[in-house]
Amino acid sequence: MEKSVNSVFVNNEEVHFEQGQTILSLLKKELGEDSIPTLCDVSNLKPFGSCRVCSVEVGLEEDGPTKVQASCHTPVMQGSHIYTHTEKLNRLRKNIVELVLTDYPKEKFAADNPKQNELKKVALQVGIDMSDVRYLPGANHLDRQIDESHPYMRADLSACINCYRCIRACDEVQGEFVLTMVGRGFENAVTMGMNDSFKESDCVSCGACSQACPTGAITDVFDSKTNDATEVTRTICTYCGVGCNLDVATKEDQIISITAPYDAEVNEGHTCLKGRYAFKFYDHPERLRSPLIRKDGQLTEASWDEAYDYIINKIKLIREDFGPNAIAGISSARCTNEENYLMQKFIRAVVGTNNIDCCARVCHSPTALGMQRAFGTGAATNSVIDIKYTDCMMVIGANPTVAHPVTGAKIKQAAMKGTTLIVIDPREIELAKYADHFLQLRPGTNVALLNMMLYYIVEEGLEDKNFIDNRTEGYDDFIKNIKKLDIDAMESITGVDRNKVRAAAIAYASAPNAMSFHGLGVTEHSQGTFTVQLIADLAMITGNIGR
Ligand code: SF4
Ligand code: SF4
Ligand code: FES
Predict the structure, then answer these.
(1) Which domains are delineated in the chain?
(2) Could you tell which of 152, 174, 191 is best to mutate to test the pocket of ligand 1, judged by most ligand atoms within 8 Å of the CB?
């Protein structure tokens, strides 16, 4: 057979691959998601190559000599011949799974649902059942104690198969490093913190380990992976602006658990404690289930018809007596865009006033206005995925690991991998621990600090002159004012050593691609709009737009 560029042969059929693609990802694409059994592989974790269940045979010529290789961490080699289901491979996979099952609780295996328990699914896939296990019972780990100390997490390590998926999820996805493997050989075991109970460890209840575990050895109190949900509905989390996609599992119209889909670009199989576990409010006994009307000073339950009549009468009366401008409406960021649109339409078109506001204005209008003034649009110029590609992240007035945990975890991961991190915040937030530059300014002094950064960028000659000449206007006036700044005064206003600000400014301006993040610590100040404009100025003076 003639070989073309970026092509290989899978079971003697020619297929094309992408440079750097692993054999497993090629086979999943060509032969189907479940074509090759895997145990230690998870799509949002780095390939690990420990279980070898995914092994395939790879040779250099058709039906020639081959080598067995783990497909999950082996890159595809141009022109190679890959065989996926030979007799040798079937035997190897069976043997591996059989060995794993010698130390797995029999009763649990019988009860496990192969749709949710990946070990059972793989066992059935390779054609082995508990009754096929040939080895005599010897020492095992089946009497390990269950850890139920944690409010959300559970560990029954008698069902652990030492695949490291939980540990890798905690490290690579959440960046919390709570779980580790201790002991050698037969004593090898997953442990929490410094051999603590789950509760005493530093676990932040993100649930990444529970979602990653293929056997339910680590799970959560909702048994998210093994419960008997009858329906799963894809939705979007309403807690914060990250917009995690969630798979909501239901049974008899009740939510029984939530997991994070791996194919969601924004959260890639991860979400936080709130998105994953804080869902009971929807059915809380104290939740309002009918309108309340205050009668004789007491809030009293009313029917919807009664409530609508009451609202209509009151609005009519107030409008007749005082005019439509005596009425105002306020809506919420908790509502959908469509609901907010309808609310303003109702207030404007039906009531007849422009007195309509939304709670999001307080938090976000400084961003929208500041960016509108700087760029002509209030929309962000980067997306979260750019965290993977940026060389420098500046976080100002935001605490993402708490307020937007999934994005916060991504920033943390990038910082740990060497991306420069500048944190500007009066509080020593979690990200400050990972920061190369932590500027702990006095509250309310963002404008002064950003002006100092601009001053040092100009002083060091780090402006992007090409970008400034071609893409900005009013630069000469702007720079005159920056050069006139009294740095002594700025230093005493911010309380931050000028050398630290200078170093951070140089790091930001000299990074090939820098990205900035701001939050309510910027916008919920009287100077919020100006601060946003200064953040935009920093991006423009260094040409960090459109990269
Ligand atoms: S729940 Fe999250 S933080 Fe806790 S151990 Fe699991 S992965 Fe780590
Ligand atoms: S607890 Fe689960 S994910 Fe962690 S090593 Fe054991 S089987 Fe693998
Ligand atoms: S899935 Fe490839 S080695 Fe485990």
Answers:
(1) 1-132 (3.10.20.740), 146-283 (3.30.70.20), 292-360 (no CATH), 365-541 (3.40.228.10)
(2) 174
